[in-house]
Amino acid sequence: RRPADTEIDWKAYMQEVEGFANGTRDYTQLKGDTGPLVYPAGFVYIFLGLYHATGRGSDIRLAQYLFAGLYLLNLLLVFRIYCRTNKVPPYVFFFMCCASYRIHSIFVLRLFNDPVAMAILFLAINLFLEERWSWGCLLFSLAVSVKMNILLFAPGLLFLLLQRFGLLGCIPKLCICALLQVVLGLPFLLVNPVGYLTRSFDLGRQFQFKWTVNWRFLPEEVFQNRVFHAALLLAHLAGLGLFALHRWHSSKENILTLLKDPAKRKPASPRLTVNNILWQASCVCPLNASAWIVFILFSSNFLGVCCSRSLHYQFYVWYFHTLPYLLWCTPTTKLAHMPKVLLLGVIELCWNTYPSTVCSSLSLHICHGLILLQLWYGTAPTPVSHTPPPSKKPTATSRKAQ
Asked: What segments bear the compositional bias annotation Low complexity (predicted)?
């Protein structure tokens, strides 16, 4: 039997897209039992397809089968990324597949739109690793059009595009992202552009305190305070800036050199390809090109999750499949594997505590802080030795000694 609350979000989604199916193009008029539609247009088209495939949303069991297939596809895409990086030990994949009740619930039981957005995002990352940047940007934008949390990966993607193409070469890729948003939103932009933009890209939307997973230990008035929100935004921007300057940027040159054409940089930076890359500085944990791309994208998203104004239970899927990489991309001794597995277990326990408690939310922040410290110190550049290699020819002194 399905729990009583299984159908809540699914029915609301179906009610929202039903208005579009009936001809409504004013975004402010698309509503469901849980409130107005607050997702971009890509969500409408994808769930409209599910609406028709499941008999106007009535066949929930079929929808769950479809989401089970999405879950398996998502795992396949994630495993392919991890195989390219070659950083995570195989036994960790067991925990990713079998040890998370919350993730299974988000995908197959509650039928949220978050898994749809993340599956498209992981497909885009696979394309980035294959050097198909234009197609990757197209799918990245499609993921954003399903749910805006994908924008947490955007700072890392922008850094990679600048590093790979320079400012002028980066502009066409950004135009691909923007153009898709315009095309998808066009039916709504032609009728009520202000209504569509304010509803689907509302960055200032308030969250309900009763659903928060990460800030339960705060008083509700602090949780809802705009000053607190501004402080979190500043912390997020500061974290991105520090990682971009000191962890993502591997060259000794000023970071502004990323704006130049890669061919005109001095010294010229080699092309950022998956199979051939020469980094200017070595790291404590040497990362190949695929691993470096994934590190920048996953750490960008993780910084955003750490500074989120609120995390609801379905938001766990935003970063669950990235946690093993974030934990194992840094050097790991034989004895250090257990603390990392323990961190995964504590994070899982925090997300499975319902309703959240002061202890669970504090524990979640502590785990996030430990991962951030590991990423910061585990990928710190090491001093590059300029001592010339010893000569193979014996010196005059050694000849005399012989």
From this structure: 393-402
Domain range for 126 is: 6-262+287-377
The answer as to whether 197 is a domain residue is yes
Tell whether 118 is covered by a domain: yes
3-state DSSP call for residue 166? helix
Structure tokens at 3: 């729990």
- In this structure, the number of other CB atoms found within 10 A of the CB of residue 367 comes to 20
H-assigned helices in 132-225: 133-146, 154-189, 193-200, 220-223
Q: How many domains does the chain have?
A: 1
pLDDT digits (tens, 9 = 90+) for 160-207: 999 999 999 999 999 999 999 999 999 999 999 999 999 888 877 788
Residue reference for tokens 């799918």 = 139
Distance CA 164, CA 301 (A): 20
- Do the domain assignments include residue 280? no
Measured torsion, CA atoms of residues 147, 205, 202, 10, in degrees rounded to the nearest 10 = 40
391 within some domain? no
User: Which residue, 138, 158, 103, is CA-closest to 319?
Assistant: 103
Q: Is the peptide bond before 267 cis (omega within 30 degrees of 0)?
A: yes
Q: How many residues does the structure list for the chain? A: 402
